[in-house]
Amino acid sequence: MKSFNYKSAVNTKEAVKLISGRATFLAGGMSLLPAIKLRLASYSDLINIKKIKSLSGIKIFSKSIKIGATTTHATVASSKEVIKSIPSLSALAEGIGDPQVRNRGTIGGSVANNDPAADYPSACLALNATIHTSKRKILADKFFKGMFETDLKKGELIEAIEFELPEKSAYAKYPNPASRYAIVGVYVAKLKKEIRVAITGASSSVFRSKELESALTDNFAETAIDSVSISSKDLNSDIHASEEYRAHMIKVMTKKAISNC
Question: Which domains can be identified in the chain, with CATH numbers?
């Protein structure tokens, strides 16, 4: 592992001020440290934000739930507030990695990393989330740009993610048996004004399926999916699943999610 300078911030203002050159923020480190170890990324400075109290915690509002960026997956999974207001989000968090990852990894780190097979990005899109940063508020629809790419600017720190409370929602994924990452994951959410279907693991980045959303808007039932055609174009193909298989699994996981709503 290459050498780097380690710094720790006590508040958001200090954390942002410490960012310069090839520096980045560190919370749980579940994605960042392996990337550095495997020489897929290199930084001059790591800014520890784990000690910033304002970045952790869960707040429930009348129409949304706001989760601090350094809140761990395990906390989201076990939170009574999350279980009561968005049980599908709790279930999603419980299905991430293993106990070690869930107790170290953070929701903000996962969202900022935007791994093509990560779970949280699908929740952000399906639940019409707003990403609160040190500079602005970004709608989830505009946040995820491509493989490991987001709308975050240099030195911009995610402070919290705010999810809209759905009328119904569920997440279903076909996981890689080793990593638990989604080979295909589908998050279905029936919100007050619309139905959203977000898909992860199938392409280079999380995305919404307009075809599935349209079908479910007309009839929110498993049978509505039968007539939908999912194109395999631009889907991932690797040793785990071909693009055609992933296209098939999108419909399978969508039906499963609907049945769990």
Answer: 1-53 (3.30.43.10), 168-260 (3.30.390.50)
